[in-house]
Each structure stands twice: as structure tokens, then as C-alpha cells.
């Protein structure tokens, strides 16, 4: 390596001193080389000093870490020594723990003595509130009493849940049976609520005697309360699988409320068919026209009902989806039946009319009808093709029958002992072309 360095230095000197006149600059070159050498040495000293400081700091940290590890080791050892008596202490404190559990149960019972002693009275007040004909049922008061009784029951059940013994299940069943009347009034309350929510549009319109939008809002407030209670217990269960959850939870009343609305919508669509083919040949046209009027009126009422519902329900979009789903389901049922030719025309025409501005695409409804039909068409493409094929086949059979009857009629006229019909010029003519073209025109119009 020294030889390589020496050769590189000789080559550098040779490159600097190639001509005699460059010897005059030799002192200057020496000074420059000395300055460069001093600068490199200073950099090396700085670098070495920095490395030494880093090593010194690292050694100090290692020493501190070693001391900390030793201290922690002694601390852990001391903790282990102090924890050794705890298993025996747990057994010694078993009686105290049981006494504390009983004290908690007694405290919960003392706090809820009022509800325990007045259980039957409170249940009767709830029934009276639900049967209050003047206000259509005081649902908020009934729900308040129910929440008080449930709180008392759940606090007692939670205390029993904390215990671990052979009688725990027996005590839980005893409490559940004692408060079983609460489940009965809860069922009565929910029945009243679903009845009211099922008539939301009528109440918004003001057609229900003794009712109105305030009754709908009351039911929705109760549903929101129940949803918050469900969420509280379900969050606790998600964090701890052994956490206490009261019997009957979650109730999922929001889901049941929406199901009630959906059932009402389905009845509104299905219940408009008051006659069939045996009673009226135009039963399908009448039914589809009634459906159109009902859907248009109900969707406009659904826009009025928006302020009654919490924003996250998106109730108008839900109503649109429910009516569209019910219409699709009913028309698919009708399309699966054996329809007559005129009924096929009426059905296909109504489907085409369904998305027009006179119905689902009406400006007042503010519905993107094309997007809805693209996501969920009323009839599938295969069903539409099948209906078109049925119509073509029926038209073909009708034309065959008409032509056959027409030719038979012309044949009979030909063999009659009467003179053929004449025009104004005295030429014989027949009505056969007019009859055939009339058939084709009627078929085209259909």
C-alpha cells in the first residue's frame, strides 16, 4: 500500500513539474501542500475526537443500564416475595368477599324497594297509560315506568351475575319470574308503537282520529332510547364477553320499526287489487291505475314526514326503496301468471310509464328514477323478452284465427245465390282486403 501511495505522489509531482519554468512555483506548491495537509490532519483529529466522545457516552449509558437492570431485578424479586402471601390471603378474605357481594345486593335491593313493593301498581299504571283513549295512549309515560322497573330488575340481576355459586341461576330465575309482568307490558307497548308507525302516512296527513305526527314522533323517541340502551350493553359485551346483558337485549326496535313500515307499504301495494279477471276484464288496468295514485300520494306524504324521523334514518329514501321493491315483487308475480293479450299490453305500457315524469320521475318527488331502475329493474330482461314473445305468439294466433274466419266467411258468401257486391262503377268487389288490413292495423296499435 505504501508503494502505491508513493507512486501516486510521484505521478502527481510529475504532472505539476513538467516544464522548467514550473520550478519557480515550487515554494508556493509546497505551502499549498502544507496547508492541505494541516487541514486534513485537523479534520482527522475532529473526527477521532467525535468518535471518542460517542464511545465515552455509550459506555456511560451501558453502565447506567446495567445499574437500572440490577435495581429492577431486585425490585421484581422483592415484589414476588411480597406476593407470595396473596393466595392464602384470598382464601382468608373469602367470607369478606361474600359479605361484600351480599351487601351490594342488599344495597341494590334497598335502592329499588320502591319499585319492588309497587310492582303491580306500576304495571297497572302502565296499562292505564297504554289504554288512555284521550291521548291515543300515553306512550312516553308508559315507557318511563317500564324503564324504572327494568332498571330495578337489571341492577338486581347484575349483582347476582357478579356472584359465582350454585344458586346463581336459581336466583336469576327467581328475579326474572318476579318481574315477568314487565315483559308483558313491553310487548303491549311495542304492539301499540308498531300500530302507530304502520299508519305514519295517515297520521302525517291527519286522517287518524286522536292521532297525528306527534304520536309518530313519540314512538320514534322511544325507539331511539331503546337503541341507545342496546348499544350500551352490546358495547360492554364486545369489550368483555362475560359482561352482564339483561334478558331480551338487544331488542332491535329500529329494525322492527322499519319492518313495520315495510309491511304497511307492501299492504298498500298488494291490497289495491279488489277484483280479478272473472269479475272485470280490465282488472289489471284498474289495479295499476290505483297503484299509481297510491304511490304518488304516499311518496308526497313521505316527504312531509321527513321532519318526524331522525336524519340518520333517511326515511324518504327508505320509503322510495320500499315502494319500488313492493311494486317489483307484485309485478313479477303478475308477470309469472298466464296473461291475456290485452293484459300483456297494459303491463308493458305501465312499466314503461313507471319511470316517466308523470310518476316516479315527477319533479315534485325529486327521485332519480333512472338510477333506481338501473340498480333494480321492475322486470328482468329475460322476463321482458318472454312477455314480448308471448305477445307475438298471441298476435300470430289471433291473425291466423281472424284470417281463417274471414276466408270462411268469404267462401260462404261466394256460394250464396246472390249477386256479388258492386262499386259505383259497376265492378265486383270484396271486403276481404279491408278486413285484413284492419286486423293488421289493430294489431299494430296494440
UniProtKB/TrEMBL annotation:
GO molecular function: SNARE binding
Domain of life: Eukaryota
One BP annotation, GO: exocytosis
Coiled-coil ranges per UniProt: none
GO CC term (a single one): exocyst
UniProt protein name: Exocyst complex component 3
